[in-house]
Amino acid sequence: xxxxxxxxxxxxxxxxxxxxxxxxxxxxxxxxxxxxxxxxxxxxxxxxxxxxxxxxxxxxxxxxxxxxxxxxxxxxxxxxxxxxxxxxxxxxxxxxxxxxxxxxxxxxxxxxxxxxxxxxxxxxxxxxxxxxxxxxxxxxxxxxxxxxxxxxxx
Length: 154
Hints:
By secondary structure, the protein is mostly helical. Helix content is about 80%, strand content about 0%.
């Protein structure tokens, strides 16, 4: 025997199944299991009608929108702060290199990355002897670009 499903019982109680009303009522007269299910739904409906509805503040939508806007602004401020910091690091590094190159630190760096720097030194005539700093600046900017992409996913 086919029993009425939950959607059919709820539609019957809501009065939405007028075309099937007679068939449902006929089935309910002969099926104890569906009568029990219908009674359970009637009790649920009764409780839902008698319970006070939760009320949201009239300002609820505005508060949610303001909260979302605040969170987006905080994320934007974080991104801007990180990018500004990276900008100052790159700018400061480039400025410091041209003002006071710290020869011993540069020699240590050259030893660590001698293979890559040999390639850079071959480019030196093209960039008037400033190939190293240009390559380092490009690498830092690539790193900043990667960080920017990662930050946008936060």
